[in-house]
Specification:
- This protein has 282 residues and is an alpha/beta fold.
- It folds into 2 domains: 118 residues, Quinolinate phosphoribosyl transferase, N-terminal domain (Aldehyde Oxidoreductase, domain 3), CATH 3.90.1170.20; 154 residues, Aldolase class I (TIM Barrel), CATH 3.20.20.70.
- It is built from 11 helices and 13 strands.
- The strands form 3 sheets. Strands 7-6-12-11-10-9-8 form a 7-stranded parallel sheet.
- Strand 9, helix 9 and strand 10 form a beta-alpha-beta unit.
- The longest helix is centred in the middle third of the chain and has 35 residues.
- The radius of gyration is 23 Å and the shape is elongated.
- The two termini are 40 Å apart.
- The relative contact order is 0.16.
- The model has no long low-confidence stretch (mean pLDDT 96).
Amino acid sequence: MLNRLLDSELDRFLEEDCPYGDLTTHLLGIGPRPGRIAFSSREETVLCCTEEAARLLERCGARVIRMEPSGTRLAAGTEFLVAEGEAGALHTGWKVALNLLEYASGIASRTARIVAVARAANPSVVVATTRKSFPGTKKVAIKAIAAGGAIPHRLGLSETILVFRQHTAFLGGLEPFLGMIGDLRRRAPETAVMVEAESATDALAVAAAPDVLQLDKIPPPELAELVPKLRHLAPRMRISAAGGISEANAATYAATGVDILVLSSVYFGKPADIGVRLEPLN
């Protein structure tokens, strides 16, 4: 189930863009006139945040006539959100709703493309996204990647155990850390222990310890040789690949046989291209 933004958060978006009213609409004297706004895709798009865009328009005083839900895949030229109301309400919500739709649907569309190419190479692979979204946008980003078919890798530091080299350095290296695995499991019995390895040597050294082994920046040819060795040492351990994974190479990484692809690339790129018609009603 996709998360939803609170109305208080939507109000903050509106307040940021229109804190003292719409000066242009006011001076033109068109605020009370009836109108219609319609959003449509200009390219193949996976929608996200249509629910929030609709509520933004409603909170401005408009009435939503039709809306396609987040996760819907649209062909170019498809109308997906329509609202009617006074011109003042429509102009106030227009750009805030459009910005939210374009940024969120851009992430959702990139995610969907990566999921598609990865699963074509490895039908069981899972795409997971990191916590590298732009600060302040996490709720939108998480809704967008879920709409595109991915899952969050980590929502934050508070609910996951992922041990990096930067952690074990403070313990004196890998060997002292490996002695702590049992204690970690006793103290957090419901949480998987994940460990990142940056080389095949380190991966093989820790293979029997974690629930999930994350292999960072290991090239696909080396990864393809390493995965069967890790499966032999720890058949129940899940293996994830991370570091520089994008639409261009996701299939190659998925074909190595890993269970999970961990990536950040979906957060960065072109927003979806969405068109808007805002016109008077006769």
